[in-house]
């Protein structure tokens, strides 16, 4: 049941595959580039190979960065623990306002 194309087929989602000519021209009329045209589908094996290669490159690039980040996080954590000794009990007292001394001192840099 093929309808004859009169170069003005109405292209909608439900019938978009009926007339390639009109579908193509509608795409061009809304701004699609000729370079965006695909001819067939990429074979599954080739697609999986490309994904695997992409992940491998990501790991090679990310590994040194991740190591640097882990070192930096460790250094920040150590500095925090050295300079801001806090535990759950102290935090609870501060948050409920049941402590008589402030948890930290704010220095006015202009007074120095």
From TrEMBL:
GO BP terms, alphabetized: cell differentiation; fatty acid metabolic process; hormone-mediated signaling pathway; negative regulation of cholesterol storage; negative regulation of inflammatory response; positive regulation of fatty acid metabolic process; positive regulation of transcription by RNA polymerase II
Gene3D superfamilies the record matches: Erythroid Transcription Factor GATA-1, subunit A (3.30.50.10), Retinoid X Receptor (1.10.565.10)
A Pfam family annotated for this UniProt entry: zf-C4
InterPro entries in the record: NHR-like_dom_sf (IPR035500), Nuclear_hormone_rcpt_NR1 (IPR050234), Znf_hrmn_rcpt (IPR001628), Znf_NHR/GATA (IPR013088)
Coiled coil: none
Residue ranges of every copy of the Nuclear receptor domain listed in the record: 1-39
Protein known as: Peroxisome proliferator activated receptor alpha
Single GO MF descriptor: RNA polymerase II cis-regulatory region sequence-specific DNA binding
Keyword Zinc-finger: yes
This protein's UniProt keywords: DNA-binding, Metal-binding, Nucleus, Receptor, Transcription, Transcription regulation, Zinc, Zinc-finger
